[in-house]
Amino acid sequence: MRLVVVSPFLDRRHGTELCVIEQIERLARLEKWTIDLYSQRVEQLSSVTLPSNTLEEQPGSIVWHKVPGIPGPHLLKYLWWIAVNRWQRGWDQRLGQRTPDLVYSPGINCMDADVIVVHVLFHALYERVRSELALRRAPLASWPRLIHRKLYYRLLMLLENRMYRNPRVSLIAVSTLIARKLEIYVGRGGVTVIPNAVDTRRFSPEARLEKRAQSRKQLSFAQDDFVVLLIGNDWKNKGLEGLLGAAALLHDLPIRLLIVGEDAPESYTSLIERLDLQHKVEFSEPSEDVLRFYAAADLYAGPSMEDSFCLPIAEAMACGLPVIASVNAGASELIRHQDNGVLLHEPTDATELASLIRTIVTDGELRERLGRAAARTIQASCSWDQNAERTREFLQNVLGSDKSHS
């Protein structure tokens, strides 16, 4: 099969893009599919090559067709991306390149996709942020930014209506949560769910324990500190305010919060001071060695307001960490309450979150049991090999269905 993959960028630091990398590496290596990758930036992808002068690449090759980008506001860059990647793919075909069997896109990156993986639904996202975009409540200086965001969301919702309602476009949802929202917001039911996965060779209890002492020393945690970890960008959506509120209710416990991401820590300075948490919160930038954060932690807390999947929850489980997961995160579907993790039903309720944290901090036997069961869950059903195999079957079924109707 010759598969065209359209994604603005690929790296291993972002969940959606990591998923694509893990899939196409396996489809190329194991299935010998030829992957034509149209992207503006590619990092940390093994065995990728640039287009050659020969018309036929070796089976199993991943060929990166670099798409030029432009500076400017996000909306303009997105419109440019949609137009230029389509033009470039058409030009390559006119020059004699083989026509792809399928066009595969994580999200809406082109208007001719055969298969789209839905990682986020902007209809649902807009409902959550609508009040934040109200101009009448905002200072005049912020209007350009708010108008830009509203226009961007409106455009994405328009495209969702066009693409996701089209029965010719096959959809994959990364969680049952997203599948339900597709049915609610765009009337598309029966969508196949293929959850994101974890590199179970990299993330394991053994690997975490091996790095634990060194990681805690590097991050300056004392032996008796109980470290609660949160990883992700857009900390407001990840539920950081609720986690800080919960920590403020636990001053009698040796709680330390480790917050990892690319957001702005200074935005939380006043809240941290008001809650008297200055010496209990550590911020860290993301690292390629993400395992060191899990190794340093005693508990992963994911009180997301809304998350299509939330890969760190699954990675923490694979490492044998006890996990508290918001029911608004897709990865919570992996959790059986108080069996292999703990579910948080109201992420804005700091009291509920504090109670769950206290239970896990004070019950060592429960921590061990939850961690062991969490690791078994991920090892049994959430590897990238399984994800790639299910994706391969889905794509081949789509191709077979298209041929039968042609």
Textual characterization of the structure:
- This protein has helices at 15-31, 74-94, 122-129, 143-164, 176-186, 205-218, 235-238, 240-248, 269-274, 291-296, 311-318, 350-362, 364-381, 384-405; strands spanning 2-6, 9-10, 34-39, 41-42, 48-49, 62-66, 102-106, 115-118, 170-173, 192-193, 226-231, 255-260, 281-284, 299-302, 323-326, 342-344.
- It has 406 residues and is an alpha/beta fold.
- The protein has two domains: 2-197 and 384-405, Rossmann fold; 205-381, Glycogen Phosphorylase B (Rossmann fold).
- The strands form three sheets. The chain has an eight-stranded parallel β-sheet.
- Helix 11 (311-318) crosses helix 13 (364-381).
- It is globular and about 70 Å long.
- The mean pLDDT is 93.
Annotate the secondary structure layout.
Layout lengths: L1 E5 L2 E2 L4 H17 L2 E6 L1 E2 L5 E2 L12 E5 L7 H21 L7 E5 L8 E4 L3 H8 L13 H22 L5 E4 L2 H11 L5 E2 L11 H14 L7 E6 L3 H4 L1 H9 L6 E6 L8 H6 L6 E4 L6 H6 L2 E4 L8 H8 L4 E4 L15 E3 L5 H13 L1 H18 L2 H22 L1
Parallel strand pairs: 1-3, 1-7, 2-4, 3-6, 5-6, 7-8, 8-9, 9-10, 11-12, 11-14, 12-13, 14-15, 15-16
Total number of domains: 2
What spatial order of strands do you see in the largest sheet?
5-6-3-1-7-8-9-10
Distance between the termini: 17 Å
Q: How many beta strands in the DSSP annotation?
A: 16
Quick structural overview:
The protein has 406 residues and is of the alpha/beta class.
